[in-house]
Amino acid sequence: MNALDEKLNRFTKYKISEQTLRKFIDYLKQQAPVFAPHHNGEASYSYECVENSAEVVLSYPRTMQPLKKYFLPPREVLLNFNIKDNTFSKPEIIEETRIFFAVHSYEMASLKRLDYSFTQGHVESNYVSRRKYAIFVGISYTPDESHFSKSVGIDVEETEGFDLFLLPVGDGYFLLEITDTGKRLVEGFPGLAAPDTTEIKTEPLQFKSKIKYHHNRLPAVFDHVYKSKVWDKYAEICVGCGTCNLLCSTCYCFDIRDEVDLDAEHGTRTRYWDGCMLNTFAEVAGGENFRGSLARRTRHRLYRKFKYITAKSEMLHCVGCGRCSHFCPVGISMTDIVNDLITDYEEKQNKEKI
Amino acid sequence: MSKPRVAFFDFTSCEGCQLNKLNLENDLLSLLELVDIVEFREAMDDKAENYDVAFIEGSISTPSCVKRIYDIRRRAGVLVSLGSCAVLGGVNAMKNLHPADWVQEAVYGDDKYLFPSIPVQPVSAYVKVDYEIRGCPMSTPEFLHVLKSIVLGRKPEIFDHAVCVECKLHENECVLDKGMFCLGPVSRAGCEAICPENGQYCTGCRGLISNANVGGAIHMLKRHGFSEQEAKKKLQMYSSLNKLINEAECRHA
Fold first, then answer.
1. B134-191 pLDDT, tens digit each
2. Which helix (DSSP H) or strand (DSSP E) does residue B51 occupy?
3. Which positions make up the signal peptide (chain A) (predicted)?
4. Is the minimum CB–CB distance between B161 and chain A shorter than 8 Å?
5. Can you tell me the mean pLDDT for B86-98?
6. A102: left (phi over 0), alpha (psi -120 to 50) or beta
7. Which residue of chain B comes nearest to A41, CA vs CA?
8. Other CB atoms within 10 A of residue A325 CB
9. Which of chain B's ends, N or C, has fewer CB atoms near its CB within 10 Å?
10. Cβ–Cβ of B161/A247 closer than 8 Å?
């Protein structure tokens, strides 16, 4: 038995059919609002608040926006102000229990990274308030051509951060109790038989997208590729639309805009997701832009994932969800860039040996 | 402080942007609390000698347009171009792609000598433009934002990022992925991605983002099954005066 199976087999688990699982969602809805993947258009998925448990999608490649949208909303009013009285008020953030259902392991890993980013220095209190009582029910998935989370050290069956975890087995699922919170949720649900004692044996999943090096070696590669030609190669086809930033599950940059109402008195300060691939991101007063070219922006984006925050947090800030690759309109793949950089790095190393 | 005197002028255009302002309805009265409208042909008969803010709709396409825009600039404190025709030349500018004689004949036939015409240019080709409001038609929230900013004495924030950003913020399914054409990845946002959100594709009515990678955009559209010719033609619909498009070469077969 491998280490992963050994870990999974330590948890108490129940055999649950899909039908009962949907009843379990209904049960969870009675405890707290439940958010889960839904169909959104022809071949797109998004997390939505569950109205009807029959509409929850259990098998999906990835949602468009990551789960962070519930903790760092795409648009958020930070302040309401009055420029005549010179006063302001903060909208109250309700600290409530919310259940996030059928979440993939890379998504959970990305929240761990956001937790890190938002609790360094000045704590981002809105994020922390929204995050505090969140409950997570994980589910494993079949990697598609863009997933590469294994290459950044995150297993499909990684249970860290989850309260419950679902593993497909036969025509149903194993429901694993990971935390005490998860255990309490399961205990209150009447539809389950006694714990199942069958041994879990996971099949090694084949990822179609892979990074050539072990993830531990990636920060070292990034020590040597700052001036690589690879950046120019991808900048030539990149159109700078910012999709990779906006859908990234660990990107957290935002912009803030003030808008005054027509009464020229009241107004709101709103925060929006921003991205370092966009034209005005590194623009300063006077119109100077510190990262004018797409090559520099692409480099900055990747360094933020594999080096800058990694050096401080000891976590790669790419979780291999494959959103940037899958949703890129020109088809630039994160693993292609990293693998090209590795080739460049190797060539450089060889030259130095001679 | 007296209210700023605001005027609206139309040049070569469909006047849709002006009409769009009259559609503000709920906000019109509050707007009139902020400013005095002193000239607005679409809505009133009065004329004024000078204006604190002049909004210009439409492109410059005749010798008389040139005279008029110089005159307006002299009388105006702040000049704002409004809508794609004024900012980019817009759809009108497509005529520049054809011989002038042929265009005049097609439109006016034998009477073409009665209507002198010059190549279409945006307002900024003739006079200094302080702010630009893009869109075909211009978006009313953006118009209000600019007007409020001018009244409050702050610089309006005009976006220079792609429509993709707004689609992603709204979590719209990508129209390119659905097999449709789309210029969203290189076109300016500010419209709240209204077309993709309603099942249409982005035609790039706000023009391209600054320093757009047009070669990359053509490569992108080819990747989604569209020909280089179609890509260029559609890019030229609103942005035919954008040099980047004419210079662009798709380096990736």
1. 999 998 899 999 999 999 999 999 999 999 999 999 999 999 999 999 999 999 999 9
2. strand B51-57
3. none
4. yes
5. 94
6. left
7. B173
8. 21
9. N
10. no
- Report yes or no: B107 at the A interface, CB cutoff 8 Å: no
d(CA B172, CA B182): 13
List the one residue out of A238, A251, A229, A232 whose CA is nearest residue A332. Answer: A238
Residue among A241, A245, A274 with most chain B CBs within 10 A, to mutate? A241
Whether B30 has its CB under 8 Å from any CB of chain A: the answer is yes
Distance, in Å, from the CA atom of A338 to the CA atom of A161, rounded to the nearest integer, reads 27
* pLDDT tens string A186-226: 999 998 889 999 999 888 888 999 999 999 999 999 999 99
What is residue B249's predicted lDDT score, i.e. its pLDDT?
64
pTM for the full model?
0.94
Q: Reduced to 3 states, what is the DSSP secondary structure of residue A38? A: strand
CA distance B170 to B164: 10
Tokens of A247: 């859908």
> What's the rounded mean pLDDT across residues A24-42?
96
Would the CB atoms of B186 and A46 count as touching at under 8 Å?
no
Reported as a single tens digit per residue, the pLDDT across A90-143 is 999 999 999 999 999 999 999 999 999 999 999 999 999 999 999 999 999 999
Q: Quick one: closest CA in A to B26, which residue?
A: A262
Q: Give the one of B157, B173, B211 whose C-beta lies nearest to A257's C-beta.
A: B157
Confidence of residue B252 (pLDDT cuts 50, 70, 90): low
Number of Cβ within a 10 Å radius of residue A333:
18
Contact A243 B217 (CB under 8 A): no
Q: What does DSSP assign to residue A329? A: T
Is the CB of residue A249 less than 8 Å from the CB of residue A63?
no
Decide: A235 and A295 in contact? Cβ < 8 Å.
Answer: yes
Computed over every residue of chain A, the mean pLDDT equals 95
Mean pLDDT of A16-44: 96
The proportion of chain A whose per-residue pLDDT surpasses 90, expressed as a percent, equals: 91
Q: What is the largest CA-CA distance in chain B?
A: 62
* DSSP assignment of A238-260: -----HHHHT-SS---EEEEEEE
Rounded to the nearest angstrom, the minimum Cα separation between B163 and chain A is 8
Q: List domains and CATH numbers for chain B.
A: 5-152 (3.40.50.700), 163-247 (no CATH)
**Is the Cβ pair A64, B144 closer than 8 Å?**
no
Query: CA separation (Å) from B147 to B5, B46, B61, B143, B150?
Result: 11, 21, 27, 6, 5
Contacts of B245 in chain A (CB under 8 A): none
Tell me: cis bond preceding A190? Omega within 30 of 0 counts: no
B5 — phi, psi (to 5°)?
A: -90, 120
Residues A176, A25 contacting (CB under 8 angstroms): no
B3 touches chain A (CB under 8 A): no
**Rounded Cα distance, A236 and A232, in Å:** 6
In this model, does residue B253 exceed pLDDT 50?
no
The DSSP element (H or E) to which B54 belongs, if any, is strand B51-57
Instruction: Give the separation between CA B197 and CA A74, rounded to whole angstroms.
Output: 16
3-state secondary structure of A68: helix
* Minimal C-alpha gap between A6 and chain B (Å): 39
**Residue A1 clears pLDDT 80, i.e. is over it:** no
Neighbours of A112 (CB within 10 A): 15
Residue A58 has pLDDT above 70, yes or no: yes
